[in-house]
Amino acid sequence: MAPGGLRARPSGLLAIFRPRRTWELDLRPVRAAVGAGVALSAARACLQWIAPVPLKLVFDSVLGHHPLPGVLSWMPTAPTPRLLVLTGAMVVIALLLGLTAFGATAFLASAGQRVVHQLRCRLFAHLSAQSRSFHQRHAQGDLLSRLGGDVQAMQSVVVNVVPVVAENTLTIGGMVAIMLVLDWQFSLLALGMLPVLVLVVRHYLAVIREAQREARRAEGDAITAAQQILTALPVVQASGTEELEVARYGGLAARSLAANRRAVVLQSRFTPLVAVVMTCSTALVTLVGAREVLAGRLTAGDLLLFAAYFRAMYSPARQLAKLAGMLGRGQASAERVSEMLRIHDEVPKPLAGRRPPAVRGRVTFDGVTFAHGEGAPVLADVRLDVEPGERRAFVGATGAGKSTLLRLVPRFADVTTGAVRLDGTDVRQLDLDWLRQQIAWVPQDLALLRSSLWENIVYGSRWTSRSDAVAAARAAGVHEVIAALRDGYDTDVGEAGGRLSGGQRQCVALARAMAREAPILLLDEPTAGLDASTRSVVGAALDRLSEGRTTLLVTHHLQAVADGYRISVLCRGRIIEDGTHRELVGSATAYRQLYLADVAHGDDEPRAGDAGPAQRLSVVGQLRAGSGG
Ligand SMILES: Nc1ncnc2c1ncn2[C@@H]1O[C@H](COP(=O)(O)OP(=O)(O)OP(=O)(O)O)[C@@H](O)[C@H]1O
């Protein structure tokens, strides 16, 4: 997945100083908490600056004989009371340091959690808004791993690393300034190793991030494979390829393990390296500083102050070294989340989409051509008017473009050229939510939500109660099928409705379509794969459901639409024949062939002289009569 079009990202430490741009974090809702956290961090920085001063004064003006600075002339002159004041100050400063540390961390960490939580919700909303073609291109497992593991990794950084950085930036800045004022030459020497440290930190953060990037990619691939294997488990088990799939998953998981181990090895090299650089610096400061004290150019207290500042300055580097793995993983994850957020493959919503007060239900395909991306057209110049309340069936060979044509009506995809119109208005000018409210969609195999059966029936409708669901099922004529289930309407349908049979799922889909009370009905092979008796129940339900509604039905079962439907025959994306069964079966070549093939291979036993349209009509009629619809 190439991060095409992503703008260049700042690398290393810079990346966490520019969280809004790089990490897609919106800090506006947490301005107050961030402000409080930064203010407390600033207070803590000031306290850090003065924390070593009492000890310096003890050395210089209690143990030694240097006079106190003018601002401290109020202090007792006797050594013991002065010592008490100075040690008391040490304790008070330590307490205040603790309090400000607690406050700053609490504010910044909770702001971080909230911001990342919002990012997670935004990412989910973004993914939900993407078109079907986006979801066909991206593996679900990979998307889930971005939504779960990657956002979690970002949260760890924002909660653990950002407060450390925020707190120490001010501390270091102030300390460098104070050191330079006290003795700039010595300060430059003491800080001489700082660039080396920055280079080491940058280098290691970059390589650790690269290793983490690979680890996150491998984890995404492993989750994708697991999800695909579990989804297709019946096929895998039936094919006896479990071991093969387990090995495939193991290989991907091992790739993730190897990348993670590489990151850990890098991390474990990095921490001691930082310690070595720091020890060298400390040795240098002690060496030069002690010589300065001996030469009388610095007091012992000054050296102590320098040493304390020096230690305080290097502590963020030490902490970051410890957090480098987390930071690298967070950065790699932020890139993956950002990559998703920058893809915009949503069905475009008009700014002020129209919401007509009433719908008649005329659906017009006005010179519709459609191609998937840059591919060859799947539909070519389709022209068709479906009158309000009309029943229209689309038939044709596999891959002719029937389902695609249906999908253009609720704008699951948009036409390449031409227009789909509802009551004369281009569907792209209508409010998208309003448009979809006008349509009940019954796909071939509806994936149900994991909840009770009745909740699935009222899902997406204006009805909310169990009794509403029962009423809808009764109206659709599928109540008996549902009531016959052991738990009836309270049946837990299982993952994607997997605990129901195909026919039962289809009955739920039809009851749901009934509950939606939409004027337009789109049915994509609603009777495919059903046995003759279930098909008759579903067929009867379809008759009730399509009563008074504009109905567009895709089917391979031509006998079921011979009565009551106008029929369009699609071939390679074009409507080649159009009319009623009676009109077509006598004259139209393609339809006649399809019809005869259906009769010959259908579930219904072919009868002598079956090719006659009148006879077939009566067979369909008998079928329906038998269903009691
Ligand atoms: N996401 C996609 N990307 C590229 N091509 C696609 C995509 N989805 C479908 N197609 C192609 O579009 C063509 C029309 O598919 P469609 O599902 O509309 O056919 P159909 O007539 O409904 O077939 P069937 O009767 O088998 O369901 C097919 O050739 C199919 O391979």
* Gap from first CA to last CA: 51 Å
User: In percent, how helical is the residue content?
Assistant: 55-70%
Structural class call reads alpha/beta
**What strand order characterises the main sheet?**
6-7-8-3-9-10
CATH topology description of the largest domain:
ABC transporter transmembrane region fold
Largest sheet: 6 strands, mixed
What is the CATH C-level name of the largest domain? Mainly Alpha
Averaging pLDDT over every residue, what do you get? 82
Number of helices: 22
Q: Overall 3D geometry?
A: elongated
Rg is: 36 Å
Point out poorly predicted stretches. Answer: 1-20, 603-629
The proportion of strand residues reads: 5-15%
User: How many β-strands, per DSSP?
Assistant: 10
The CATH superfamily of the largest domain appears as ABC transporter type 1, transmembrane domain
CATH architecture field of the largest domain: Up-down Bundle
Q: Ions, cofactors, ligands: which are bound?
A: adenosine-5'-triphosphate
Structurally, the number of domains stands at: 3
